Amino acid sequence: MADTPSRAGSPAALDTDLIVIGGGPAGCSAARMAASVGMHSTLIEPDSLCRNLYRIPALNNVLGGYSSGPELADSIATELKSTELCRLEIGRRATELRADDDQVTVTLDTGARLTAPYAIVATGVGPLQPRDAPWIAAPSDLPLPPLWKADAYDAEGRTLLVLGGDRPIGTFLRAHPSTPTCLVVVYPESDDYKVEEIRDDPRVTLRPVEHVTLHLADDAATAEIVDRSGKRLTVAADAAFLSIGNAPTAPSGDIVRGTDGYSPPAAQHPRVIVAGDLRSARFQRIMTALGSGSEAALHAYYAAKELLDSDR
Ligand SMILES: Cc1cc2nc3c(=O)[nH]c(=O)nc-3n(C[C@H](O)[C@H](O)[C@H](O)COP(=O)(O)OP(=O)(O)OC[C@H]3O[C@@H](n4cnc5c(N)ncnc54)[C@H](O)[C@@H]3O)c2cc1C
Q1: Overall domain count for the chain
Q2: Domain limits at 80?
Q3: Where are the alpha helices (H) located in 231-306, listed in sequence order?
Q4: What distance in Å separates the CA atoms of residue 189 and residue 199, rounded to the nearest whole number?
Q5: Residue in 32, 33, 56 to alter for ligand 1 test, most ligand atoms within 8 A of Cβ
Q6: Pocket mutation for ligand 1, best pick of 51, 63, 272, 285 (most atoms within 8 Å of C-beta)
Q7: pLDDT by residue (tens digit) across 209-265?
Q8: Considering the domain boundaries, does residue 172 fall inside one?
Q9: What CATH number corresponds to the domain at position 26?
Q10: Is 190 domain-assigned?
Q11: How far is the CA of 47 from the centre of ligand 1 (A)?
Q12: Residue 106 near residue 119, CB atoms below 8 Å
């Protein structure tokens, strides 16, 4: 592939100094940090930069005065587009990553190949479906929307059944602070710690469950619940939404995955650096993604200069 202006410090035969796979907060901050230390990068993103931030209507944990995801996403995208040393491959997906002794090779969905000394993989996570959750029984063709897709109209004066206690519930409540609604949140034991942030909202009813069987009609949702003591009860709602979390999404090839599907940075090939949500189910926040992406770029920089300690 053609390259942008001349690069210092990398073998001339390679396309760039650093390939960044994924254009979320982690990938964008990696490319930005790489540029700040003089590294050329190519960032691959199938959608738009920071696409997931456009789903976050209200922010309360990001420094810099940003109060919404779209505001932050626009700002990051503008900055990346003006970063001279970063070439953007928007509308392209990485399908495979191979790591050898002296280079990485990334294959794109067009069939084109890109080479570099290092790759940062920051592909984040994608939404789970009811079939992925053993505690939910639901028709297999069930088109259940995630809660972040619900708007004030869906919620106003209605009872919503929410399957799972994942964090988007807090985001939804903050985005609609004065909307009168009732969220009945049914969640498994593994989500116990996640519901703490919504426990005090009077619009929320928490129902810890062992198992739930879901039935849907045109204008109603019914859940048959088995609670943690084995007691059965039925909950009726106007609609049902999902908040059961996400699963890691990484291209195929030489990316090590743990038993939970995540890709711990310390387990990777020395030329593959993992950043952002893909690292682990914990620490999935915008600021940790920004930090880990920046750190990943510096890791590649020091490794290229052979200034890295042996333990990562
Ligand atoms: C509804 C919702 C609300 C949230 N609210 C908050 C909040 O209030 N505060 C907070 O701190 N965090 C919040 N988060 C979490 C936050 O959005 C994530 O932690 C953050 O976006 C992670 O950044 P990332 O770059 O690791 O991954 P992502 O943002 O997921 O970016 C990964 C990128 O990789 C791209 N990609 C995927 N596969 C490939 C491939 N094969 N090739 C190339 N590119 C690929 C994707 O298109 C995507 O753009 C929320 C998340 C959701 C879903």
Answers
A1: 2
A2: 18-127+246-304
A3: 286-304
A4: 15
A5: 56
A6: 285
A7: 999 999 988 789 999 999 999 999 999 999 999 999 888 999 999 999 998 899 999
A8: yes
A9: 3.50.50.60
A10: yes
A11: 12
A12: yes
